[in-house]
Amino acid sequence: MNTTPPSEHDIHAYVDGHLDGARRGEVERYLSRHPERADEVHAWRQDAQQLRTLLAGDLGTTPAQDAAMDPVVIRTQRHGRRMARAAMAAGLVLCLALGGIGGWVARGMGNGSSAPMADAMQAYQLLAVDHGVGMDITTGNEGDLRAWLAGRVGATVHLPDLADAGFRPMGGRLFATDQGPAAMVLYDDGNGHTVSFYVRPPGAARHLLPRGEREDNGLLANYWSDGWHNYAVVALADAAGRAAAQRVVIKSI
Amino acid sequence: MSDPRIDEALRPMLPRLRRFALWLARDPHAADDLVQSTVERALSKWASRREDESLRAWLFAILYRLFLDGNRRASRYALLLGSLREAEPTWPSAERVAIANSTLAAFAALPVEQRSLLLWITVEGMSYQEVADILEIPIGTVMSRLSRARRALRLLGEGGAETPPLRLLK
Questions:
Q1: Which of B33, B103, B124 to probe by mutation at the A interface, max A CB count within 10 Å?
Q2: Judging by beta carbons within 10 Å of its beta carbon (0-12, 13-18, 19+), is residue B142 exposed, middle or buried?
Q3: pTM
């Protein structure tokens, strides 16, 4: 008499009704001698039968569902989507091209001669005109400010002594720029005139500025370079501002 | 490539795919989306299908992978959003669907792979080889996983519907 238990495969095949007569008989004989195993296998059979019956109801679909799943409908949608995607891709290429050209032009503008030290003017606008941001360091002590600048922008930064010109430092603030950390120190003459001293590294391209002056949006910027950093002095572009900037620039360079 | 023969071959499979999707996603809308994505994928990959491959197994495999990919993506987003909870909760709509039958409730509470195995084999009547192809595992592994799935269904079903997930933890 054969006593080897049927394989796992045969047990499952028995449960699922896949066995032919001879092997089916073998499994049945084995189970009749092993009632515990038989209980489990018959329960499995029952479960399978039940699942089949219970899930049969889930095969029903509504006409709307049939339509949504239909290959013809999906193929049409897919075609429409592909056309839309192609249109979008074409638009994207156009945008990239325009943006690229625009960016190239803007690059020439920001970098070159037309708007040097625009960041210095924006910084002045932000701190001295709009009072939109506060100072990182508030002190009238030039030694402290020098140490602060040396630690953050560079040891070679030359902070001017403007006491002779009637200006005293009030504090400073750091800015992040593409070229590296920049700093601005604000000076005040006690009569409501504020002048900024702005310093920024030349950046990886070592773009050093020639001495120059420009006005923009009511602000006056004087700028120059000492070979290591680019500097700017920014003031309001009115008579008092011009005079103050003049004195500061003479002392700074 | 709009071959009406492809459409004719696909159409009879759709209700079965939808039933599978329904028991995977456990949400009618998600199930509809899954079936539509499956048909779309099947149409675009029709040429790459092996001739000897069972169409049914091929379609079920596509749907199953789409579902798993979607789950994985969902859990990635959940991680990104800082939520550490499992992406696959145990049947959230158990109450909504009102599963009166304890076998059905147990079936719903099974892990995704066990649920899929039982549906493919006992309900769809697929061969063990077809299932092995879908899961890309040896047929012997299908057998042992099927045993585990059947035992889990028993265990969950016997305990009634009270606290099925706890029983799995032993």
A1: B103
A2: buried
A3: 0.55
